[in-house]
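Q: Got one fold?
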Amino acid sequence: MVSIGNDWDELLKDEFTKEYYLKLRQFLAVEYRTRTIYPDMYDIFNALKYTSYAQVKAVILGQDPYHGKGQAHGLCFSVQKGVTPPPSLKNIFAELHDDLGCTIPEHGNLSAWAKQGVLMLNTVLTVRESSPNSHRGKGWEILSDRIISLLDQKPEPVVFLLWGKNAQEKMNLLHNPNHLVLTSSHPSPYSVNYGFKGCRHFSQANDFLIQHGSTPINWQL
C-alpha cells in the first residue's frame, strides 16, 4: 500500500482502500509492466512526499505528467536537472523574471519550491510515453479532487494558482474564504498570451502570504 511518509498518510488512508483506487492500482500494475510509463513508479507521489499537508501554503495544479523520456519526476511543470525545460516551464520562468526579477535558471527542477510549501500537484499522476492524457479517467482525478478538498479545509491561508481551463475546473472544490484563488490562461505557448503573461501571480501570492503572517516563497531557483 502507499506510504508517503508524512501527514498525508493519515489524511488519505481511506482513499487508498476504496474501490476506485484499487482498480487504478491494478491498471497501473499492468501499465508499468507492459508499457513505458512516467514518472518512475517510485516518483508518483513526490508532490505529497515533498510537501506535507501541514506545510502547504501554495498550490500549483498541473494536468498530467510530461510524457517524454527523463522529464517527469512527480512534480507538476518540473523536470529533472539535465533535462531542457519544456516551453510551458520556460514561460513560467519568463513571468517570474518579469514579475519578481528572478534570474532564469539553467535547470527546470522545481523541488526547491515544493520544499517551501508549494504543492506541485498534477490532477492525473501518471502517463504513457508519448501519449498525453492516456491515464485520464482511470481514477486519479478522484484522488486529486480529494486532496484539493482537504486543502480547502485548512484554516491557514493557502494560495491556489490555477492556470488554464483544466485547473480552473477545480474552483468548484474551493469554498474557504481564508484562501486566495488566482486564475489565468495556461503557460503553454498556445495560450500564454491570453492571460498568463503579465499575471504577476508570484508576487500576488507572496503579498498574500505576508499579509497573513506567513513566510513568502523564495521563487528564485
Q: What stands out?
A: Helices lie at 8-12, 19-34, 46-50, 87-100, 111-114, 140-152, 165-168, 201-211. Residues 28 and 34 are 10 Å apart (CA to CA). The two ends are 34 Å apart (CA to CA). The longest helix spans residues 19-34.
